[in-house]
Amino acid sequence: MNMESLPGGGGSGPNATNGSVPPALPFADGAAAATAVVLGLLTVLTALINAAVIGAICTTRKLRLPANYLICSLAVTDFLVALLVMPVSILYMTTEAWTLGRVACELWLSLDMTCCTCSILHLCVIALDRYWAITKAIAYARKRSARRAAAMVAAVWVISVFISMPPLFWRQRPGGGGGGGLHRCVIEHDHLGYTIYSTVGAFYIPMAVILILYYRIYAAAKTLYQKRGGSARHLSGRSAGSQNSAERCRSDRCRVAHTFCASDPSNSETAAEKPDADGGETDADGQDEKNQICTSRERKAARILGLILGAFIVCWLPFFLKEVLVGLRVVRPSPAVSDFLTWLGYVNSLVNPLLYTSFNDDFKAAFKKLLGRKEHA
Question: What's the whole-model pTM score?
């Protein structure tokens, strides 16, 4: 989300030039070339990994679940960031001047803000989906459909457009359509109200929602484990009632853990819910082993939760803090710092598909299947 600019208008930045001063030559030194190579590799990786997630969900029937539709939509959004936003940013950084014209500048800035905002809001709706799945499991299971997922995705895109499009109504750029006098392409911080509106809507509110939802998911999981975990370890399999209670307890505990992975519980919980071969008698050792499986999944879910929240905050919080401080004219960051923080946010589009799919066995199997097809071809 390339919003870097110094307060006070369009002609004072370090990249600003007039018509008589030629822009810097591309790749003037080795550092610029090395930067372009590294950023190019990040862009390619982001595109490939998100394309793999999209392909896995589209080609694997087992993954065609409403929760995974949200992940697929997130992957599409992050793929658009890698395809439409990151390459242009690399060109702009290495040439140190905008050479594509005014129309391309407006289009790129709008795509940058829209896609990055949409990616962040996707994390918000995924958290909301998982919160409903764990706290209102039975009621939400009836409502959790592809149509509902599509409505959530549509709402995310509409909100993103409303956040990113207002500057089109007041931005004035020199040089006309050919870009003869345009050598900078940044969003100016000359509207403090819009800076606050965009940063709050694109990041601070979604961050607060995500933190609250995942905290409540963790609290609900912890309560469920405390209420039913102890009793499950001491239940005997001698009576049908106690056996059913134990099975229900294990099912609930594992459902909590799998909520974090957006997985299909029917496949992954087989080991934990499979009845005894002896027909009805469940010994203490077997019961303890099954409880250890769910406890292990609980720890795994907690790790996933920490990684999701940590990656999101580390990637985007520095950028949006800088945006607010620049808008308030508190700081005046260098272009290098602004570019670094912008790309730190872009890296979240690479991290998202790794975090939301790497811990899911069904996704791993689908990725192996895709790789097998490519090798065969």
Answer: 0.79
Please tell me the distance from the alpha carbon of residue 28 to that of residue 89, in angstroms, as a whole number: 17
81's tokens: 């960031």
Query: What homologous superfamily does CATH list for 30-213+332-376?
Result: Rhodopsin 7-helix transmembrane proteins (1.20.1070.10)
- Residue 198 CA to residue 107 CA, distance in Å, equals 18
What letter represents residue 232's amino acid?
A: A
Cα–Cα distances (Å) from 150 to 71, 155, 159, in that order, read 12, 9, 14
DSSP 8-class letter at 166 = G
Whether 356 contacts 126, CB under 8 Å: yes
Among 192, 121, 216, 127, which Cα is nearest to 162's?
A: 121
CA dihedral angle for residue 141, residue 363, residue 290, residue 276, rounded to 10 degrees: 80
Structure-token pair, residue 254: 């594992």
Per-residue pLDDT tens digits for 64-90: 999 999 999 999 999 999 999 999 999
The number of angstroms, rounded, from the C-alpha of 195 to the middle of its chain's C-alpha atoms is 22
Tokens matching residue 134: 């764990």
Q: What confidence score (pLDDT) does residue 373 get?
A: 66
According to the 3-state scheme, what is the secondary structure of 327-339?
HCCCCCCCHHHHH
Interior angle at CA 321, CA 315 and CA 324, nearest 5: 140
Distance of CA 65 to the CA centre of its chain: 18
Q: CA angle at residue 265 from 259 to 266, to 5 degrees?
A: 170
pLDDT in tens, 251-289: 555 555 555 554 443 343 433 344 444 555 555 566 566
Q: Is the pLDDT of residue 222 over 80?
A: no
Q: Using pLDDT thresholds of 50, 70 and 90, give the confidence band for residue 114.
A: very high
Tokens of 43: 């862009």
Name which of 257, 251, 249 is nearest 296 in CA terms. Answer: 257
Contact indicator for 14, 57 with CB cutoff of 8 Å: no
